[in-house]
Amino acid sequence: MGKYPDKILNEEQLEDILSEPTPEVVKLLSRLDGDIIFLGISGKIGPSFARMTTRACEKAGVQKKITGVSLFDSEEQRKGIESYGIETIHGDLLNTDFIQSIPAAKNVIFMAGMKFGSKENLSLTWAVNSYLPALVAERFRESRIVAFSTGCVYPLVPVKSGGSLETDQPAPVGEYAQS
Question: What is the distance between the alpha carbons of residues 30 and 36, in angstroms, rounded to a whole number?
């Protein structure tokens, strides 16, 4: 898209902007070997990220099978993701039989996690944020895995400090950050 508009007029325009691949992403996808699977694709970042991936492949002139796995909030959401050229698989990643049935992929983008509602369901929060990554690592041990995580493990700092750094010692506050 290049230059950003002064005002976002609708969700479609916003999605176009969010999913526009940079030249660096196009270059990466032109060199990346193998297909890509997104685990936990239906969260707040997944659909835009996966669409960016399909757009980058298109610009790079490469063919990759891109698959998205999730429980999906609705059939409408699933069909929206499929409209980007992404094959979807519906299922619960905490179900060990299901996770073993997911086809292998050379490249895994792991985005599943529980943040919202974590206080109300601590056991599920710990299962999704601690046990599930172990299941994924075991199932996709032959794959390259990129895992999205959280910055919430860093200590609280004054606003004027500019924020925590990756070199800061972790000091998670609360159950979500600890999980």
Answer: 13
CA dihedral 148, 59, 11, 92 (to 10 degrees): -40
Count of residues for the chain? 179
Cα distances from 96 to residues 2, 71, 131, in angstroms, run: 43, 14, 11
Locate 74 and state its tokens: 């609705």
Range(s) of the chain covered by CATH 3.40.50.720: 11-148
CATH architecture, domain defined by 11-148: 3-Layer(aba) Sandwich (3.40)
**Is 0.85 surpassed by the pTM of this model?**
yes
Closest alpha carbon to 43 in 99, 112, 143: 112
Q: Please write the tens of the pLDDT for every residue from 126-145.
A: 888 889 999 999 999 999 99
Mean pLDDT across the chain? 90
